[in-house]
C-alpha cells in the first residue's frame, strides 16, 4: 500500500489525486481553499466515470482519501508528494520548503509546474523533480520528468504502474517540451483571432478535422515521414524546409495581450461553447478520450499501447 | 454522374482521386510522371482498404479512372478540376492557364496549394479557389476553401457530399489557417532538435501521449475553456496570458535550415521509424485513423460527426 500527498487541489492536483486513488493508493490532500473538497470531488466523479472504462479488467480497490488541515500532516509518511500550487516561483519555494521539512527522506517530490526548471524550483535547497502532467490527468498518459536522473528513474517506474507514460528530458528547459509546442500554437492562434482571420471555433475545427487526428496517434515527425512518400523524411525536408524562411507566421512578433484581445477571445469562446456547462464539456471530452484510447488499444499504437500494458498488469478478474 | 480532373498525381493528387472515385465520381488524371499510375495505384489501394471501413453502409460503386496523356483531355467535361502540382508559383500559373483554356465554363477549379493565396494563384487571369486538403485526403475531412464566395459555397456543397468538412476562410492569408499552426509547431520542434533538448521520437511522444489526444476531438480553445475550470475561458486567459511575454519559445528566431540540421532530423527519424517501410506506416496510420473516426462517430464529436452525417446520406443496403 502506497501513499501520495497532493499539495494544491485544483484541476491538476485533483487529477493527480484521482490517478493515485483509482490505482489503489491512499491519498492525503492539503489545500487551504475551503472549496477544495468540493472541487476535488467533482474531478473524482469524472475520473471514476472515465478511467475504469479504459480497461476490460478491474482496477484495484480505491485507496483512502483524506483532507488534511495542514501540509505537514498530509506529507507525513508519503511515498510521493505532488505539488500543484499556482505558477509563482516564490510560492513554489515556500511550499517546497515546507514539504522538505515534513516529507520522509526517500519520498519523491514532484512539481506539476508547466514552466519552471528544477534548478529554479530547487534554488533554495529543495530536491524536487518536475513531474508535469496533462489535463485530464486521470486519462492522458503523458508526464514530463525533469531533474535528478535516479529520482526520475524511480518516478518513471511508479508512473508506469499508474498507467502513465513518463517522458524524461535529458536537459532542463523553460516549459519543458509539450508546452513549448502548445505555446507556439497558442501564440499563432492569438494572431489569427486578433487579425480577424479566424474565430476560436474555426481554429478548433481546423485542428480537429485535420492534423489533430494525425497527432493523436503518430505525432509530427512520423506523420511527415509518411508525407514525404516513398522518398521519406529527407524528401519531405527538401520540399518543405525552405518554407521556414517564408512569411507564413507572425511568430517573430509577440501579440499585445490586452483587454480587447481577452474580450474578443472570451466572447468567441462563449459563442462557440457557452451552450454547454463546464461539467458537460468535461464529460464530452472524457467520453471522446476514452473512445479514442480504447480504439488505439486495439492497434497498440501510442497511448493505446500504454493502456494495453497497464491492463495486462492488472489481475484477471 | 460527376467527373473530376486530377492535375498532378502525387500523394495529395492521388488522395483526391481516391476521395472522388470511392464516392462514385469518374476521375481523369493528368501527370507527366511515367510512374504516376503506379503511385496513384498505391494510394488507391490504401484508400480502398480504409475509407469503406468508416461506414456501416456501402459507398456508391466506384467511378471510372482514366489516365490522360494531355491536360486538356483530362479537363474536358470536368465538374471539378483539382490542381496538385509542386508548390512553385510560376508552375501553378502555367498549369492554371492550361486548365482555364480547356475546362468547362462552370467547373470548379481548386488548388491544393498549402501556401499561396487566391490573389497570387489568379494573378494571370485564372479563376481558381484554394481547396487545401490534408494527408491522407481519403480519410481526413478538412478542406480549407479560400476565394470567390459563390464558388466556395458550391465547392462546400460538393465536399460535404464527399464526406469532407469544408472550412471557408473569410480572408485570404499566406498558408491559410492549419498550416500556420503546423508551421509554428514545426519551427519550435526544429529548435528543440537542434538544441539537443529532444529527439524526433521524443517530440512525437510528447504530442501523441498528451495534447494530440485532446486535439483529435476538441481543438485548442474549447480544451482550454475546460482547463479554466468553473471560471471558464476568462480565468484561463488571466492565468496563462502573461506567459506570452516569457522566454518560453525560440519562435522569434528562425533556425538556420542547413545540411547539419537536415542530417540530424533525417537520422533521428530513421532511428525512430526506419524499421517500418512507408507502406507499413501508411497502413498503421490509416488503421488508427479509421479506429479513431469510428470511435468519434459514436459521440458525433468533431470529425466523427462528419462521418456520421455522410453515412446517413448513403442509401441503406
Please explain how this structure is put together:
2 copies of one chain form a homodimer. With 317 residues, chain A is of the alpha/beta class. The first copy, chain A, folds into 2 domains: 166 residues, Rossmann fold, CATH 3.40.50.720; 98 residues, Orthogonal Bundle (N-(1-d-carboxylethyl)-l-norvaline Dehydrogenase, domain 2). In chain A, strands 3-2-1-4-5-6-7-8 form an 8-stranded mixed β-sheet, with helices on both faces. In chain A, α5 links the parallel β5 and β6. In chain A, α1 crosses α2 and α12 crosses α13. Chain A starts with a strand and ends with a helix. The model of chain A has no long low-confidence stretch (mean pLDDT 92). The interface between A and B is large, with 118 and 118 residues.
SSE inventory with pairings:
The structure is a homodimer of 317-residue chains.
Chain A: E1 3-7, H1 11-21, E2 26-30, H2 36-50, E3 65-67, H3 71-75, E4 80-83, H4 89-102, E5 108-111, H5 118-121, E6 129-133, E7 142-146, H6 149-161, E8 165-168, H7 178-194, H8 200-215, H9 219-227, H10 232-240, H11 259-273, H12 278-299, H13 303-313
Helix pairs in contact in A: 1-2, 9-10, 12-13
